Amino acid sequence: MRTSAVETTGILIGILAWGCTGLQAQAPKSDPQWIGTETVKTPYGNFDFKNGYPTPAAAEALLDQLKFNRAIEVYLTQLTAVSIAAEHRGLADFGAKRPNQVIIWESLMDAKTILLTANTETVYALGHLDLKSDGPTVVEAPPKMLGFAMDALQRYLVDIGLVGPDKGAGGKYLFLPPGYTGDVPQGYFVAKSPTYTVGFGVRGFLVDGKTDQAVALMKQIKVYPLAKSGGGAPPMEFLNGSGQAINTVHPDTIVFFEMLAQLVNEEPAAIFSPIERFQMKAIGIEHGKPFNPDAKTRAMLSEAARTGSAIARANSFASPVADTYFYPDGKWQYAGFVPFNFMKDGVLEVDLRAYVYYMALGNSPAMTEKNIGVGSYYLWAYMDAAGEFLDGAKNYKLHIPANVPVKDFWSVLVYDSLSRSELQNSQKFPSVSKYSHPKINADGSVDIYFGPKMPPGQEKNWINTVPGKGWFPIFRFYGPLQPLYDKTWKLPDIEMVK
């Protein structure tokens, strides 16, 4: 039998009507999945509804909570950007305000510089570029360096030196600004930056335990606009950061969001995804508009920064992600198993990214890839072998087996869990390494002691910790060798000493 269009329409309406009636029958007013005339109890408070509608007080409180939640999410997702912005601000406050001004820690990095997880065994040089003002910019890198460049969101642009395209021979790197369509001359290692601000850093190595050769090489660095490659560029200025109070770590206050708002206005809007722009707009941060939160919003953002920081600390120091542990049965951690851009199966792993960037600065493929005999590899730990957080009032021991798998050298450096920077203690450098000449056991192993008082006879093997401060070590392998990667050589956990 053939059915007319009118009849078909009638049948469909009947089916839909029956379906709706069925749905209504399945969802009576007493069903707890529906909010009717009741008080909704949540971990954030109790909210009153009447006839399905929120009361004015409940609506205001819930929307405030939504805004607060968005602010915390902005904190966690934009942590990387604000962290590198804080580094640039810290360098500028010390005097490196322009691209031709570079800070070199000529006598090594010490605890007076607040810089996320910097080390005490290599010479640092840090600077930044302004592609908005200068256009395409050249950085002439000297030989024998190890470093890389990042954009304003702390995203990797290019390696410099031993693991970069110059392979340690030095060379000219050309950084192009967003949207650049001009000619690109030959003879440069070219990096296209999606942001106008570019940060770069290189490290030089000690020779016979001295910094002079590395410093001399670093003072060959040249930074200038491509347009002035033939002359007319301002001369380089090198500032010595050793022993100086330099703070490059972002605050967990309203200033966090103020720094983010400044970055958002200085850089192209397109560097942020649509959802990121929505989240920031929801708390008053929008490209092309001033950031002027009212008193209520400022108070909320201040609290969100503190809460976001607390979440970030838990996310880093008590990470629930198994992939962050280097040994499945140990406490040493590393993000080396995560792609350097934190993309896995098409998903941006925001929590893993925050896990790394709350306590460290900078990332590149070379830091996570297996570069046998070249570059460096890091392990860090927040807990002892018993799973307790490391306490500055207690005594610990790390037994380092013989034949550490390195071509160059190893080091152990202690950091303050609050600043995530070198621990300020009684020692110039809170570290032990090949260069500090620790006492070596008869079998070639080394024992390192941590605690508020030095064990007798362990002057070279002791790192002073501070009661009332949490601390964590980073074990660095320079020129890492295969036994590290295949784990035939294993770094034991830190043991508490009674």
How would you characterize the overall build of this protein?
By secondary structure, the chain is of the alpha+beta class. Helices cover 27% and strands 25% of the residues. The protein has helices at 5-26, 56-77, 79-94, 131-134, 212-218, 254-266, 274-282, 295-317, 350-357, 365-368, 482-485, and strands at residues 38-42, 45-50, 53-54, 101-104, 113-114, 122-130, 137-141, 146-151, 156-161, 171-176, 189-192, 197-205, 222-225, 237-240, 246-247, 343-344, 347-348, 376-380, 395-400, 406-416, 431-433, 446-451, 462-464, 471-480, 495-497. The strands form 7 sheets. It has a 6-stranded mixed sheet. A hairpin with a 2-residue loop joins strand 1 (38-42) and strand 2 (45-50). Helix 2 (56-77) packs across helix 7 (274-282) and helix 8 packs across helix 9. The radius of gyration is 28 Å and the shape is globular. The termini are far apart.
Largest sheet: 6 strands, mixed
Strand order of the largest sheet: 9-8-12-6-4-14
Structural class assignment: alpha+beta
Strand content: 25-35%
What's the architecture of the largest domain in CATH terms?
Sandwich
